[in-house]
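[step 3/7] fold_predict: job queued, chain A
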Amino acid sequence: DGDDGFYVLEVNTRLQVEHGISEAISGVDIVAEQIRVAAGEPLGYSQRDVELRGHAIECRLYAEDPRRFLPAPGAVHKVRWPTGAHIRVDTAVSSGSVVSRHYDPMIAKLTVWGPDRMAAIGRMREALHETVLLGISTNIPFHLRVLDEPDFLAGRYTTRYIDEHPALTEALTLDERDAKAAAAAAVFAARRARVSGARADVGEVGVSAWRRASRWRS
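[step 4/7] structure written:
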């Protein structure tokens, strides 16, 4: 308030949803510690033993239309998660999974760590570009737009950030990432067609060209 007093807005008597970020910058496995405490064991360290290092960012990936943030359930035909140092993916979704309309459409929590904020932002960009979720709409394009937006990069944002930046949620056209995905799908289909054609030709070994041609005329 005006006297620099603090007010408690929320108290969660549970493990925070964003615990992956805390774990990334502290090096503490909070889930494991919670289980130990529940089993009656004491914490093996005090608050003064915890040192925070670097910067971590979490993006929650949802099956939703990023233009209106409406759920977009459906079958996930192909999944490929990013890999590498300081990249964490919390998910239960794999190729063939179905995102139901009856539940929260969150697909995964993607967390990255970097020695500083800009390094973490760069790593998150790479991780999002490496993520493949075919068959459903996701908010990945929205995340990528935010990570490139000048005010976000400068750290100038509030809880009204999205309302103050309507361009982030304008109709999304076929961007470069989608174009690459479409091109990859086309290449895969073409290769599959060639393999099928080659198998058909193998069955024709020893058959004269005249006989093969006659089948097309009949």
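[step 5/7] annotate
Confidence is low (pLDDT under 50) at residues 209-218.
The first helix runs from residue 19 to 26.
exit 0
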